[in-house]
Structure formats: C-alpha cells, structure tokens
Amino acid sequence: MKRTNLEERLNDLRTKDKSVDILDQVATILREDDAKDDLIQKTIASSNGNTIDNKFTFDLLETKNIYHISQIKKICVDYRLRFLDSKYFKGELPYDAISKIKELENIHDIKIEGFKIVAPAKLFKLENYDDPLLFAPIANGFYYLIHKWGNDLSPHRRWQMWSFKNFENFLFLLFLMSLVITGLIPDGLFLNSTTAENAGLIFLFVFKFVVAIAFYYGFVSGKNFSSSIWNSKYYNK
After folding, report:
1. Which residues have C-beta within 8 Å of that of residue 149, sequence separation ≥ 6?
2. Measured between alpha carbons, how far apart are the two ends of the chain, in Å?
3. What's the longest Cα–Cα distance across the chain?
4. Secondary structure of the chain in the HEC alphabet?
5. pLDDT at position 136, please?
6. pLDDT tens for residues 197-218?
7. Distance between CA 137 and CA 69 in Å, rounded?
8. Integer Cα distance of 93 and 54 in angstroms
9. Is the full-model pTM beyond 0.85?
10. C-alpha span between 183 and 125 (Å, rounded)
11. How far is CA 53 from CA 110, 143, 219, 235, in A?
12. Which of 158, 119, 116, 123 is nearest to 141 (CA)?
C-alpha cells in the first residue's frame, strides 16, 4: 500500500476548501505585520524617553531585564558609553529587536514608547556597532532591557577608559606620565647637580607641561569626562 504524503493531503484539502481564500488572508496578515513594523521603527526613530512611562504589567516582566538609571549610569561612565534617546541612534536596528518589541506590546497590550539606547558615542554617528542595548522606560528611573545586539565590548575597554571617568582619574594619569617622563630625562640635562630638590623641580616643570598640553588638547577637541557626557546628546561635550 502506498504511503501517505501529508503535504499532498494538505494540498488536496486546500484545493477543495473554497470557503477560505488563504492567499488573500495571508497577504492581509503580512501587510498588517509590515505596517506594525513600520510603526515601531518610526516610534524608535522619533523617540523621546524623558517624559514617558510605559504601563507594563509587572508580573509579566522578566525581572532580570529591569535596571535602575543609577546602574545604567555606572556602566556608561565605566566604559565611556552614551545613554540617549533612540532617535539619535544612527546604526541599523536588527529585526530581532523589532520582533521583541511586538511581542512585548502583544503580551502587555500597550504601545511601547520612549526607547533609549546604550552604546559608544560613535554609534550615534556611524553605521558600525559594538554593543548596543535597547531600553524602554518603566517608571521612577527604572528601565526594561528589550534587546542587545552587536559584538561584545573589548575586555580592556573599562581599563582603557578608566582615566577618562572623571577629573581625579585623569589628573592621576597625568601625574604618572610626568613621573615616567621625569625618570627618562638624563642627569644634568637641565641642572648641573642631581639632587632630590632638583629632581622635584624638574618633575614640577614636566607635570605643568603635561597638564597644559592635555587640557589644551581636551579644550580644542571638545572632550569631556565620562561622568559628564554619559547622557549628553552633544558630540563635543
């Protein structure tokens, strides 16, 4: 006896069933789905999260995805990242993020707004990406992590950016640099005798020179410390 081909049987049933116009229904569903995708992308492209509180159903949220603004700020300062409204993001948003937003909207029966993204500053200018995080505000400084994409940050980034966290760290780096430079200066190059007092004078001279150069460069290039720019929308702040 010939074995039953389930796909052929399904095709036969579809052909015989004249009461359902499958192609029209599927086309309608896909158009509606595409329209919802477009609406979400437009919302993200124009999102302003400063005054938005999404009415999530708390019992349906995954608690591991809930973060407070103080925790987000610390990550941004430690790794020199920005936490900005999604409308400033110039990278490509993956479709997985759109799918998760639709899923959350269906589960919580709401329209999610006020999207924010954590990412390196260059992501708000360039197309390539490192490690963006997409958030939606809940209330009282809490945010819900919707999606993460891209490549993980370099394990050395935190230490590379340590000196740019604040003024104190930066000054300590300049102090160490001045010590190294002072140690590399040959004896008797500036003063005839090598004494502790003379070494101290040379160090002070080098330190003032290094500080002046560093702050002049920072002023000209518009650089600032991570603790001041983590949520700034301005490139040169």
Report:
1. 94, 96, 97, 129, 132
2. 79
3. 109
4. CCCCCHHHHHHHHHHHCCCCCHHHHHHHHHHHHHHHHHHHHHHHHCCCHHHCCCCCCHHHCCHHHEEEHHHHHHHHHHHCCEEEEHHHCCCCCCHHHHHHHHHHHHHHCCCCCCCEEEECHHHHCCCCCCCCEEEEEEECCEEEEEEECCCCCCCCHHHHCHHHCCHHHHHHHHHHHHHHHHHHCCCCCCCCCCCHHHHHHHHHHHHHHHHHHHHHHHHHHCCCCHHHHCCCCCCCC
5. 84
6. 767 777 788 888 888 877 766 6
7. 10
8. 21
9. no
10. 41
11. 11, 9, 37, 27
12. 116
User: Tokens 């009461």 belong to which residue?
Assistant: 19
Which single residue is written with the structure tokens 């790794």?
Answer: 79
Q: Based on C-alpha coordinates, what's the Rg of the chain?
A: 28
Residues 80-104 have pLDDT tens digits of 888 888 888 887 788 888 889 999 9
Q: What tokens appear for 168 in the block?
A: 């104190």
Q: Give yes or no for a contact between 145 and 135, defined as CB atoms under 8 angstroms apart.
A: yes
Q: Give the other-Cβ count within 10 Å of 169's Cβ.
A: 16
d(CA 170, CA 172): 5
Contacts of 173 (CB under 8 A, 6+ apart): 163
Residue with tokens 């160090």: 203
